[in-house]
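The material for today's practical consists of a large collection of protein records. A record pairs a protein's sequence with a compact description of its fold. Instead of coordinates, the fold is spelled out as a row of discrete tokens. We will come back to this pairing of sequence and fold again and again. Here is such a record, shown just as it appears in the course material.
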Amino acid sequence: MNGMKKAKKFFVVMICVMACCLLFPGVAVKAETTDVKAEDAVWEESQDFEEQNRKNAVKLEAPTGVQLKKGVYSYSLALVWNINPDATSGYEIEYLCDGEVLNTGYYGSKTSGTASSAVTIKIEDCNRSGNYSIRVRCKATKSYLASDWVTVSEIFRYDVPDAVLDAPSDLNWNGTTISWNAVDGADGYRVRLYRDGKWLFNVWGTMESCSRDLSAQMKEDGIYTAEVQSISADINDIRSSAFVTSQPCLVGQKVIVREFVSRLYRLILNREADEEGLEAWTSQLIDKTADGAQIVAGFVGSDEFIGRNLSNEEIVEIMYQAMLGRSSDESGKAVWGKILENGCSTYYLVNGFSGSQEFGEICAEYGINAGTVELDNPRDINPDLTGFVTRCYVQSLGRTPDVDGLNDWCYQLLNGEDTPKNVAYGFVFSPESVDKGLSDSDYIDMLYRLCMDREADPEGKAGWLNSLKEETREQVFWGFANSNEFEEIIAEYGLN
């Protein structure tokens, strides 16, 4: 191959993923009679380089000198081959059962010297009976395409026995060291360490003390779990046990942030956190794709919180506890309760509380930014204006506002598309109001409540009813709308 250095002939020792118990005569390993062949394979192009590099890429030469040897351990095999100096991304190793790929592993990018490390895949990883084989190829790089596979055929035959070792019991995991009770008949144990659900470290051996210190591998923040498996001395007679998994251990900043989120679950949703939700909210804070206020807004805007059907007073009390870390004071509770009554969303409360010293201190305690919430709904821009529109809903239609309608009316007022009087007119003569079929008497009573904020007096009502004999309802409406009382109501909401 043009441009390639001549491959140096030294072997990379790679412990393969299939322990075959070479120590015991019952394991039928055919290492001494293996046939090596190069297979035709679809070239895999690296995902890392640009299209123009793909066009110019050259296919790597397949590994040479591939053979199977006895592994370092009695129940392992070693796959060796000559290093290809152009395989700077390393090698891929797969083992197959009856031609089906069961596992794919990656070996480091050593291109010179003798490989001293190994990836171990033991026979107890095999979970079904069949003929097992293993193959290797050079991985793709930015300059080369992956090579063809080279397969060592029919490495061994393995028939899974029915009997299974007992799993380790009384697992004790303190966040650095995991320990367990010894299992009769076990040849050793395997310990795996995971961070945030991803495999991190694997160790196995006799471990006569039945414990393993994993603190050296726990250098980054995260949620760590460990698991232990009993290893069989004779895998043809009895299988290794299933893994036993520890409780999670939280390490570093993530521990603190998870507690912030857990606190919101308890205070806002009145329950303990589910792991999926806890991880999702925590990740947003750790990755700084969201701050404290935005996470609170996510909770109070959730269907679960809305479905609790809490009163405005209850909502305000929860916001005090969640964002200020204390119970509400009487005057503050009344003010915030009035804002919710006016029709503003809970996001308005979140935004208001987020600027407080108390919330800043709470967020600082958990090592996160307090932040703010963007108020993009018209109903959250001006609480007084929203209160006026909500009042029109209640007094003319006899109901609380729907969110879409409230936002629409608020938008029209905010942008000067309508005046308060025109908005009131829109409610009184809306299809919903007209369809009520109000009598003249009920119509006059409604206008008193809407435009004068009181019940009708008998003398005044009689006068307006007489007016309806000569005037239309629209003319009577404008008589109310242009009254001093309605002007004063409009002014109370800061409108004109």
